[in-house]
Amino acid sequence: SIPLGFFGGIGAASRRGILIKGGNYLEALNHVGAVVFDKTGTLTKGTFKVTKIEPADGMDRDELLRIAAAAESHSNHPIAKSIIEAYGRPLEGLDIKAYEEIAGQGVRVVLGDREILAGNVALMDRYGVKHPMIDEAGTIVYVAVNGRYAGYIIIADEIKDDAAETIRKLKNMGIKTVMLTGDREPIAKAVAHRLGLDGYFAELLPDQKVEKLEQLQKDLAVGQKLAFVGDGINDAPVLARADIGVAMGALGSDAAIEAADVVLMNDYVSRILGAIDTARRTQRIVQ
Ligand code: ADP
Ligand code: MG
C-alpha cells in the first residue's frame, strides 16, 4: 500500500543522482531517527597517502614497500590502492600461490616461498606475529614475512569536505549521527570529534558492525528507521541489515550496490541530505 506519489519521488531522486530501489525506502527515509556512517571512504576520502615507511632490522624501505604492494595487489581496499600507488612501479609476474583478504584486518598472501601479511594489530595477533606497538597518527599497516615482523607503513586519510556540514544538518533535523569503523580508536575518536558526531564505535570487525547496528536500531523510538551509509568495502552485511542501506556509488563495489536500498551515484556524502529532502517533498505531495 505504497501511495502512487512515491514513484514520482523515485524519479525526482534519480535526477539528483540518487537511485532508490523502491517507494518503501523513500517512505522509510521520512522516518529516519539515526544515520549511521562507515568511516573510510564514506566520511573520509578513502584516498590514503603513504606518509611513512619504517622497515624492521635487516629490511630496507624499498623492499618493505615492494613486499607490501605485492601483498595488496589483489585488494580493492583504499589502503591497498595507496600502497600500490606509493610503490609506483608495475607489479607483474608475481608468483602468487594463495591470496586471502581478512575483512577488517588485512591480507595474507603466499608469494613464491614467502607468506606475507599486511594489516592491523588484529591481523598480526591472529597469526601470532610479535610486533612493536606503534603509537603514531594515521593508519598503521604492519607487514610480516614468514611469521616475522618486517616493518610498518603509515597511511593518512582526510575527512571529506562536505562531511561536517552533512552531520550538522542531520543533527539540526533531530537525527542521531553515529560512526562505525574497523579502524583504530584514536583515529575514530579524532574524526568523530572533528565532525561533532553523536557517537562512534571503533575497531569493529564486519560482524561486530552488524551487532552494533542492531543495537542502535533497538535504541530508536517506535516507528523510527535507521539508515546506514557506507562505501561497501567490508560493509555489505551492514548495508543489507539496515532499514535503509545507502551505498556510495563511485567507490562502491557491485556487492554493495546489490546489498543497498539506496545508491548515491557519487562520493558526496551530503547526497544523503538530498535523499531525505526528496522523501519529505514527496510525502507532502502524497498527503
Ligand atoms: P572502515 O570501517 O574504517 O571502513 P575497514 O573495516 O575497511 O575500515 O578496515 C578496518 C581496518 O582493517 C583498516 O583500518 C586496516 O587497518 C585493516 N585493513 C582492512 N583491509 C586492509 C588491507 N587490504 N590492507 C591492510 N589493512 C587492511
Ligand atoms: Mg569501509
From TrEMBL:
The chain holds residues 365 to 651 of 698 of the full protein. It is found in: Cell membrane. This is Heavy metal translocating P-type ATPase. It comes from the Bacteria. Belongs to the cation transport ATPase (P-type) (TC 3.A.3) family. Type IB subfamily.
